[in-house]
Design a protein that fits this description.
By secondary structure, the protein is of the alpha/beta class. Helix content is about 50%, strand content about 10%.
Length: about 475
């Protein structure tokens, strides 16, 4: 007997109503898209921006109120709204509104520089967020030995026991945190994947996450990829890049799931005060939000730098990497630390996408955690570069700078209010053979640009002086 022989008239009637309701929904969606097109035409005519956070926030409140009145799951409501908003923005961009310029992110700038270098031209590369130090020799030996021992097969997704044990020891030595367990740790292919899996674990379509800017563009890019929205809290050079806990709290929406903190900061080198850090973490904890603390530059901190391990909320994810302190960027190995349940969800993403980090790489990372002298050397040299580069930048009257308190960058701002950092970066590349990353890649900062200090000091000095020449 077929299903059609078994189903009764009641089931047929219900299925008919479902079909009619679905068609009605599609009709309403079509009507909404037509209204979005008309709105796009008005915005294009009056040169208005497509994005309007105030309107979106008000609509979100209305949707959540309607969900509550109908007994509908609010997460479903925000997911539907997120899809509708994304479609509206897409059709509005087709209504004659000028296409936004491509953001020249650090990755875009790196690709442009590589293209120029392939022509044979030598450049002074101040765009790449990569230390120029060599990995510790003990790491090279450990990886070589592991390869010779054929540690080249699949291994457990979370991480090999040697690295998990080494990470727990590192947390105890570095932070005095001795309660870490294996099921709270995950080894990832670089810090970028640790950050992505953190974002994808806590946020989904229709959700929002608070991000303090200027900041590494991967946070926004990761959120866009999962259909979530980044709520930006803007800081300024005039405020010494200090985020206000009050403004962070004001940025939280009903659909906010997390707050991202990343100190020392990329690109400014800012180190948030421990009091402000603790206040923001407390706000997140009170509201049941997850704090994602990206601590990749902690080894390059020259002011007391907060860590999530000092004030653990109920929901947290710490992300880090071996790329910076140990100068192991090409090894692509990072890690995360979170409550066991959260860590398990992150591990599912890792297992689905990459299975595991190669065992020989992990054994090299475990050895790296013994190489404290090399990390101390790298940190000391980077502090010397910050000091010397700050002095050179101070000689350029057209620029102003808050001296970095950490990380491996400087983020000067042009005094001219009409300065266009994207155009400047292209001019600098073409006329002076120097690359920097425009500030627009890190948020709405067209007057700023990022200088990476991952070069010997004589190269940095030469590059900064060429910047001064171009600025007159």
């Amino acid at each position: 007997m077929t299903e059609s022989d078994l189903r009764g008239p009641e089931l047929e009637e219900l299925r008919g109503e479902v079909a009619e309701t679905t068609k009605a929904i599609i009709g309403l969606v079509a009507k909404r898209i037509e209204l979005a097109k008309r709105i796009g035409q008005v915005k294009s005519r009056d040169s208005l921006p497509i994005d309007n956070e105030g309107v979106e926030d008000a609509l979100l409140e209305d949707v959540l109120a309607e969900c509550r009145s109908l007994g509908l799951d609010e997460q479903l409501g925000t997911k539907i709204l997120g899809t509708l908003l994304a479609e509206s923005k897409k059709v509005q961009r087709m209504q004659g509104t000028p296409k936004p310029k491509q953001l020249i992110t650090p990755m875009v700038m790196m690709a442009k520089a590589k293209e120029v270098e392939r022509t044979g031209r030598r450049l002074i590369r101040l765009d790449v967020g990569e230390p120029d130090f060599h990995p510790p020799e003990a790491v090279i030996e450990a990886v070589s030995g592991a390869l010779r021992a054929y540690k080249t097969y699949y291994t457990v997704g979370r991480g090999v026991p040697e690295l998990l044990t080494a990470l727990k020891g590192y947390l105890a030595r570095r932070y005095g945190y001795r309660d870490a367990a294996d099921d709270q740790l995950s080894v990832t292919p670089g810090g970028r994947f640790a950050v992505y899996s953190a974002l994808a674990t806590v946020a989904s379509e229709g959700d929002s996450v608070v991000v303090i800017e200027p900041n590494w563009p991967a946070y926004k890019e990761g959120l866009e990829y999962v259909g979530a929205r980044a709520i930006s809290v803007r800081t300024t050079l005039e405020e010494k890049w200090e985020p206000s806990p009050e403004r962070v709290k004001e940025a939280i929406r009903p659909n906010t799931k997390a707050i991202v903190l990343s100190y020392p900061a990329n690109p400014t080198g800012k180190v948030m005060g421990k009091g402000a850090f603790k206040e923001i973490v407390g706000t997140a904890d009170d509201l049941g939000l997850t704090v994602i603390s990206d601590e990749i530059y902690n080894d390059y901190a020259y002011a007391p730098c907060p860590t999530i391990l000092e004030c653990l909320p109920r929901k947290y994810i710490l992300t880090s990497s071996f790329s910076k302190g140990w100068s192991m960027t090409g090894f692509r190995v990072g890690w995360s630390f979170a409550p066991a349940e959260t860590s398990a969800r992150m591990l599912k993403i890792l297992g689905l996408m990459i299975t595991c980090v190669p065992e020989f790489v992990q054994l090299g990372a475990a050895k790296a955690l013994e190489c404290e002298a090399e990390v101390s050397h790298n940190s000391r040299v980077m502090k010397e570069r910050i000091d010397a580069t700050t002095e050179e930048l101070a000689k350029i009257d057209a620029l102003e700078l808050v001296k970095p308190e950490g990380s491996i960058y400087a983020f000067p701002q042009a005094r001219s209010e009409t300065f266009d950092s994207s155009a400047f970066a292209m001019d600098l590349l073409e006329k002076k053979g120097v690359t920097v990353s425009p500030g627009t890649g890190f948020g709405d900062y067209p007057r700023c640009f990022r200088i990476s200090l991952g070069q010997p000091q004589q190269v940095l000095t030469a590059g900064v002086r060429k910047i001064g020449e171009l600025l007159g």
